[in-house]
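Researcher: Next entry in the queue.
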Amino acid sequence: MSNTAASESGSLPPLRTTRLPSDEETPPFPNPAPELYPFKPRIATRRGLRMSYLDEGHGETVVMLHGNPTWSFYYRNLVLSLRDSYRCVVPDHIGCGLSDKPAVYDYDYSLKSRIDDLEWLLDERGSTKDLTLVLHDWGGMIGMGFAARHPERVKRIVASNTGAFPLPPDKKLPRSLWLGRNTRLGAWLITRRNAFCKYAAKWCVTRKPIPADVRAAYLAPYDTPAHRVAVLKFVQTIPLKPTDPGYDIVSDTAMSLAKFRDTPTLLLWGMKDFVFDRHFLDEWMRRFPEATVLRFPDCGHYILEDACEEVVGAVREFLAAHPLARTPNPV
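Model: Structure for this entry, 331 residues:
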């Protein structure tokens, strides 16, 4: 049973204007860690599905996009650091975090839908120019897919352990992802045993063990099989070949990256990531030869957990070194 407000009829309900949360309108799921995540999320409802997102601070807009199986919680410390000088917009993708978690018949969980959701949210919130994208994991493909549609809007890019192009030629899909993507056993392990979320919280942090309360916050939104649909679909919809759904978007996005060669770009890489490893970093560097690159040899996929202070400091320095000349978006 999904916790959606989607219509059961064949037609899609109309869009509803974003509103600030009130006692009557709160995120579909409660904040599982208010001390660690001290924010009051807002709600945007598109076609009957409620998206939870943060809109914190004022100034130049910084859009932070999470991947799988995380949620906006991943960016909590970066938001706390930047919101005194920047406007931080951080959505939970549909099916993730505090957003609605619809069944597959209420939402198609495609890459196109993810980009459509982001495009709609930013338009709805008036964030239509002078954007900085902060990208991690699937957030890279979603964010740069959006950028390919609107290259004039994107002025700075911060990418960490992510992709925006097909799997590099020398990189093989890790066996654990292959299992989840292609087998019933993998799907059962992800949905019924919560294996993907649990092992990500263990394997993706390599410098030091993740604290118990932080681990619990990552896992909280994915507490039942019905709430792990997005986790599974992100794995099952990894586009690897031209006949896979979404591969055309990946290919088109990769071709569009040349438009951003002169865009100030910061690459922050945990070198112990077994998925988005050196092959992905090398490809980013090939496509963005002028990018600033910071490698963290002892860090894994969750670089904002492994090296929080260094990463947050590097992002602040990067933004300050590349100020925008235009007037920031109004709130």
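Model: The CA atoms of residues 49 and 270 lie 34 Å apart.
Researcher: Noted, moving on.
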